[in-house]
């Protein structure tokens, strides 16, 4: 083991098809269909994927969807705004849990 | 302005060194030979279908030093420029063809002192002329009247503009280039270029500002149209999307930045048979500044001359033989066959029928 999060692993993603080829095939088909042009453009879908990649903090996905977003014609301003959307939701999600804290504190307090 | 790789000598990879890098299949992931991909698509050996585009490279002199330039052109490339005698040989060849489109490129071809004379001669033969223009050349004091000259001769202008904002354009082409490019585009628009019904064609060329593939042509064209109109009042006919070729300065960038293998693998994975069927070398003949013949401008920069018994110099021009010549290919050809394909006229997928019509 050379370490976690090796960039050479990204092009080896297909090896996840070994030992469970049917599941891999289903995943692949569904994944491909998700990113087809639809009610949302491929460019919009890539920006969503880029934002989600940051939210789930997946370095492989950040790498892949940074490149994909550029190749769909997005620019750094748009991509940075997408990351801010992810960050705002993550920040807001943490903050809104403060109400849980307040509820608990209130319940415990005289 | 910077200097060319040749002049800077920080790593001026000669053509054979570039070819060695491109053909080295001993990397971490061995690359599929381009000819194997062609064979699997039923396109091997790749052959020309005619000479519809006569592409003249007027030389390597340019007033810019763009980071991605496959020609390694620049202000210091003053020696390798086409002479009047070689232009004359080009005219002799054009007369023997059925009014091909004459595509003049460089460097900045307008800086060749024979440029205006050559354009007038070619127009006199009734040929459509395309000028691959870097735009800023139109703002040089030494080139006064150039835009008006192009308009008067009904020359199609194919202008490089990698993005509709200054940061990305200047990052690739040099500080202040975007502002001057906008000034030039506004001047061209003022002369009627890009305006509906004027008959003066103004087409833009987009290429990625890094180691990634270009977006779909229609999508990015809509962005350019909207943003250039909104921000600068500029109009144009079409936007051609071109993939950066792993040659010369862009190859140097790929090597220095550690992106080479990944970029090549991306091009190879994106190999698209319909794009391969429509590659521009099939209906183009490329002429170097010294009269040497090539299948395309990229082969020219790799010094891969026409082969397989075809004439190798414009003085030996043989239209019948060259129109059916076998094309010299290499790993760099993946740059033209990735995704929707790439050529001097943008995407190639679906253009095979056009290529076959000549």
The unreliable regions of chain A are none
Largest sheet of chain A: none
Largest interface: A-B, 10 and 16 residues
Taken in chain order, the helices and strands of chain B follow as HHHEHEHEHEHHEHEHHHEEHHHH
Determine the number of helices of chain B (DSSP H or I, runs of at least 4 residues): 16
Total number of beta strands of chain A? 0
Major sheet: arrangement of strands of chain B: 6-5-4-3-2-1-7-8
Q: By CATH's scheme, which homologous superfamily of chain B applies?
A: Aldolase class I
Tell me the name of the CATH class of the domain at 41-108 in chain A.
Answer: Mainly Alpha
Full CATH superfamily name of the domain at 41-108 in chain A: AhpD-like
Give a verbal description of the structure:
- The complex is a heterodimer of chains A (110) and B (358).
- In chain A, α2 packs antiparallel against α3 and α2 (42-55) crosses α4 (76-96).
- The longest helix of chain A has 21 residues, at 76-96.
- Chain A starts with 20 loop residues before the first helix and ends with a helix.
- The radius of gyration of chain A is 19 Å and the shape is extended.
- Chain A has 110 residues and is mainly alpha-helical.
- Chain A is built from five helices and no strands.
- Chain B has 358 residues and is α/β, with parallel strands linked by helices.
- Chain B has one domain: Alpha-Beta Barrel (TIM Barrel), CATH 3.20.20.
- Chain B has helices spanning 5-8, 15-23, 34-40, 84-95, 115-124, 146-152, 166-173, 177-190, 217-232, 248-257, 260-269, 273-277, 297-301, 319-323, 334-337, 352-355, and strands spanning 53-57, 101-105, 129-133, 156-160, 202-206, 239-241, 284-287, 293-294.
- Chain B has an eight-stranded mixed beta sheet with strand order 6-5-4-3-2-1-7-8.
- The longest helix of chain B is centred in the middle third of the chain and has 16 residues, at 217-232.
- Chain B is globular and about 50 Å long.
